[in-house]
Amino acid sequence: MNMITKKMNTKQFHVTVPAGKRLIAKAVISLEQIKKALENNTIVVVAGSTNGYVAEELLLLIDQIGDFSRSTFFRGVTTGPGKKIDVANASYFNTDIVVEKGKWIKEKTIFEVAQSLGQGDIIVKGANAIDSERKLAGVQIRTANLGPSGPMMQAVIGKRTEVIIPVGLEKRVFGNIAEIVLKVNAPSTDGMRMLPLSGTIITELEAIEMLTGTSAELVAGGGIYGGEGGCWIAITGTEEQLHIATNIINSVINEPPFGD
After folding, report:
1. Across 199-244, where does the E strand assignment appear?
2. What are the CA-CA distances from residue 221 to residues 32, 187, 214, 237 (Å)?
3. Is the pTM of this model over 0.85?
4. pLDDT for 122-157, tens place per residue?
């Protein structure tokens, strides 16, 4: 039997942090389990800057975007020196997006719905660290009651609710998250604690592979004038796959910086 092997080529792209967030969000809503949950189950998108893009794409998909604004869709947030956020006027601060059988149920959060979640339901939770080698994420914890991570873990571990973790490559860490957790959670350590989290982790690399069928690899990073924190990604695939990848990346490449 003659086997015809398609020629594989590699193309490199620079993906900024905001473009990466948009790319990840598009990949999340393309998941089959998300589509299934929209018909029969509940999806909870826990507030966070990357999850703001996920919530936006999800609400656009079900045509219920309403007055949603991802610019204030977070709880704890890290800003640059001297930068402050007026949370008093942040309409979606400290809230979540809850979609039950395809309908956005406003003014509900993970705290109200966690006890009712179970198998088939999905929680989308961002992270502050990603250990790609061990497929583990880390969530920084500011409060003794674990914040939204408390009820989330009751549903995830107690009731086997699926967790999807959108997290950008700019949050990658070097080393074992389990060891990092031991250090930052130690009684002698000051500052935030960390919760290790496993689930379906989606970075820019997984997003590209999911949306195009290619393979993607981080090969370099950085930049200036808006390119800070960005990643150079090498994408390998057939000519047709690379054409699809080029179109998808070009569709998000001009995503403005957060807050613009």
Report:
1. 200-202, 215-221, 231-237
2. 31, 35, 20, 21
3. yes
4. 999 999 999 988 999 999 998 888 888 999 999 999
The angle subtended at Cα 128 by Cα 138 and Cα 19, nearest 5°, is 135
Show Cβ contacts of residue 55 under 8 Å, excluding neighbours closer than 6 positions. Answer: 45, 68, 70, 73, 97
For the stretch 73-82, pLDDT in tens is 888 777 778 7
Quote the CA–CA distance of 190 and 192 in Å, as a whole number. Answer: 7
Task: Say how many residues make up the chain.
Answer: 260
| pLDDT (mean) for 57-86 | 84
Are 156 and 123 within 8 A, CB to CB?
yes
Give the list of residues 6+ apart from residue 219 with CB closer than 8 angstroms, or none.
12, 232, 233, 234
How distant is the alpha carbon of residue 96 from its chain centre?
A: 14
Neighbours of 82 (CB within 10 A): 5
Angle (nearest 5°) at CA 74 between 133 and 165: 25
Give the separation between CA 184 and CA 204, rounded to whole angstroms.
Answer: 27
CA-derived radius of gyration, the chain: 19
Q: Are 184 and 173 in contact (CB under 8 A)?
A: no
Topology (CATH level 3) of domain 9-75+90-252: Rossmann fold (3.40.50)
Domain borders along the chain are 9-75+90-252
pLDDT tens-place string over residues 23-57: 999 999 999 999 999 999 999 999 999 999 999 99
